[in-house]
Amino acid sequence: MNFSEQRRRFLKKLFHPFTFLGAVAAYITGKFAESGRVKSKRVIYDLSDSHLKMGEVKDLGKVFLIRDEEGLFALKAKCTHLGCKPIWNGKLFHCPCHGSEFDLEGDVVHGPAKRHLEALLIKKSGDKLIIFPDRPAPFSQRVKVD
Ligand code: FES
């Protein structure tokens, strides 16, 4: 079998209807699996277990939960410079990699980071707070708590 015949057979298989349907099925399955992963990435915080005080920061792994006068909000625990995890030192979020610092609201105090920490979507459901680490939210979003 010469090269052009091999190529013709390959293209014939590639554009065969079953190959096409298989590719569509794989794409759809992948999309469902992807949306399942997004769901599993949610961070659940039980409001009945602990109450955050004004100005307090709770490190929940990939997110920070913060309380201010207006309520609770979440910031992504990922420095906007190169992605290291900042550490809350009681006054600022300090990035151990290159020294960027962010205030309680995630605004840059010292670079090299140029962008504020990303605010995240949060929703209250009964006594639970659901935080979506992959879904940005307007910074003004707050969840009211007692
Ligand atoms: S990754 Fe945070 S300052 Fe560079």
Give structural notes.
With 146 residues, the protein is an alpha+beta fold. It has two domains: 38 residues; 94 residues, Rieske Iron-sulfur Protein. 25% of the residues lie in helices and 30% in strands. It has a six-stranded antiparallel sheet, covered by helices on one side. About 8% of the residues have low confidence. The structure holds FE2/S2 (inorganic) cluster. FE2/S2 (inorganic) cluster binds next to loops.
Please tag this protein with its features.
alpha+beta; 2 domains; six-stranded antiparallel sheet; four-stranded antiparallel sheet; 25% helix; binds FE2/S2 (inorganic) cluster
Give a short account of the largest sheet.
Answer: 6 strands, antiparallel
Q: What is the count of helical runs? A: 2
Unreliable residue stretches: 28-39
Structural class: alpha+beta
Strand content: 25-35%
Topology of this structure?
Layout: H1 3-14, H2 17-40, E1 43-46, E2 57-59, E3 63-68, E4 71-76, E5 87-88, E6 93-94, E7 101-102, E8 108-110, E9 119-125, E10 128-136
Antiparallel strand pairs: 1-10, 2-3, 3-4, 4-9, 5-6, 6-7, 7-8, 9-10
The structure holds FE2/S2 (inorganic) cluster.
FE2/S2 (inorganic) cluster binds next to loops.
